[in-house]
Structures are given as structure tokens and as C-alpha cells.
User: Fold this.
Amino acid sequence: MWLYHQITAFHSPDRAAFFANALAVWLHRLTTLPGLEAVIAPIFPLLLLVEAAFLVWVNRRSLSSLSRAYKVPALMHVTNIVLSAVINLQVFLWAQRHFSAIAPFEAGVGWLGFVYAFLVWELSHFLFHYSCHNVRLLWTVHAAHHAPNHMNLSVIYSGSVLETMYANLVRTMICSVLGVPLPLLVLVMAIDACWGALIHMSEELWPSGALGGKLGRLILSPRHHRIHHATNAEYIDKNYCNTLPIWDLAFGTFQAEIPGVRPRYGLARKVRENSFLDMYFGEMTLLMRDMVKAPSFKAMLLYPIMPPGWQPVKAVGTAGDQPELSSKSA
Assistant:
């Protein structure tokens, strides 16, 4: 009788209604940004632990070499948590509320709307990312993400809290002005964030880093993003997109891996090994040094807005500074 009672009670209409309500509440949470974050957030720390264990087991890495690969990104992540608190969420909500109000139209919530939203999101990410590599002041906060010299999942946690605020503002502003409704914006952000994390997977865990067949031509893979993080002259400032290569192809910044040219990670300048301070604040310090030592007031004003590597050069026979672009030096 006890077993019969348990079975019938479990399948009773009241119990079914309870589970239906619980499922409805859970699905509703997935339509909100905090709810999606709560579901997704535990996934990547778990994958990171799996990756680290795999490195130890397969490649017999010592704990000291493992620490060099993961220590500084972990410190950056903790620093960003402490500094950001709820600021980034507030930036997102403020930008979405104010810029959606001036949008000339709003895309529908359907398949066509989803495709449109994803293309607009990728464009907003491309523009944000491109600006970070081509405006030195923005590079000073983005460079922390490029500083680690070993590509692995911990790199997704490396970066400056100031960059996150800038990214939230620019991407949300562009998407909102171009009519991406909030539910679709949250959805494409979640999809892009998940894939944007996975493309940082280590060469040890995914040696080829490539997707096969037609999928490999439609979607950017870890192999493509490893090129973006490379300091090789052939690869610098390429592959800005996260998921779809459409905007890199449109603007001429797409780069496939060149046979025999293996990516070298980190910054082009020499970074103090395992130094959190140099990786996080080094580019800011170098910019301030160049501005203080600038040969003219004009050059001092140009340093923050010109691309990394720019130096003022005095033209022969004329006065004043002439802008000259050079290869990225940081």
C-alpha cells in the first residue's frame, strides 16, 4: 500500500501542476539576463577545471607550469568581480532603455528577428573589438585579455573591468538603436558569450581547434580565435568576430591559419612573466609615459586616440608632428 500510495501521489494532478508551475518559472527566468547568467555561470568554471586536469594528465604538466598558465587570468577575474559589482548590469540596462527609445523600428520576436538580431550583435561586437585594437586608450584596457601567453579557458576571465563597461555600452547601444528587442538581445548575448568562451579552449584539449565541413566555413572556431590572439605579424589585428565571420569578411580582417605559421600568444612587447600588475596595468603605464615624454602638445593629445604603435615623426623641412602608423607595439 505504501508503494502504491507513493506512485499515485507522485503522478497525481496536484504534483503534475506543481512541476508544470516550477518548469514555467524556470523557463521564465531564462528570458531574463540574471536568470541566464545563473544557469550559464557554473558551466565555464567546470570546463576550466576539466581543461586544467587534462593538461596535468595528458601533458604531465607540473603545478608550477600550470600556475603560470592560469594564475594571472584568475587574479584578473577576481579583481574585476570586486571592482564591477553591479555596475556592468546597470550600464547594460541604462543603454538598452535609453537607446531603444530612439530606435526607428523594432525587429519582431521570431526567426527572422533572431537572425537579424544576431547579425546586428555580431556587427556591434566587431565595432567594439576593432576600436579596442585601433585606439590606444581603449587598447590599454583590452590588452589585459591578450596578455596571457598560453591560450586556455581561463583567458575568458582575463581583462579589465573598464573594458567590460565599454563593451556593454557600445554593443547594447548599437543593438538597441538598430531595433533589437530586449528578449532577442539577451538571447543572442547568451549564445555569443557561450561560444565566445569556448573558442578560447586550449590547444592541448582541442589540438586542431577546427570545425569540419560546411560548419567550419560558417562558424568561427578556436583555430580562428587563436589567430586573433597571436603576435605573429601575419596574424595581428585579425578575426575580430566571435561566432560568425561575416563582418571580418566584409571589412577585410578575416585571416585563416597559414600552414607552418603557428600562433605565438601574448603581447608583442616583453611582459614581466607571471606579473599581474604588468599584464593588467602595463599598457596604461606605457601610454602615460609616452604622453609625458611627448615632443609637443599635439603629440600628447594624439597618443591616446591613435592606434597602438603610433609615434609622432617630424617631417623633413617642415615643422610640426606628422602622424605615422607602425605595427602594434603592445
About this structure: The two ends are 75 Å apart (CA to CA). Residues 315-327 have pLDDT under 50 and may be disordered. Strands lie at 311-314, 321-324.
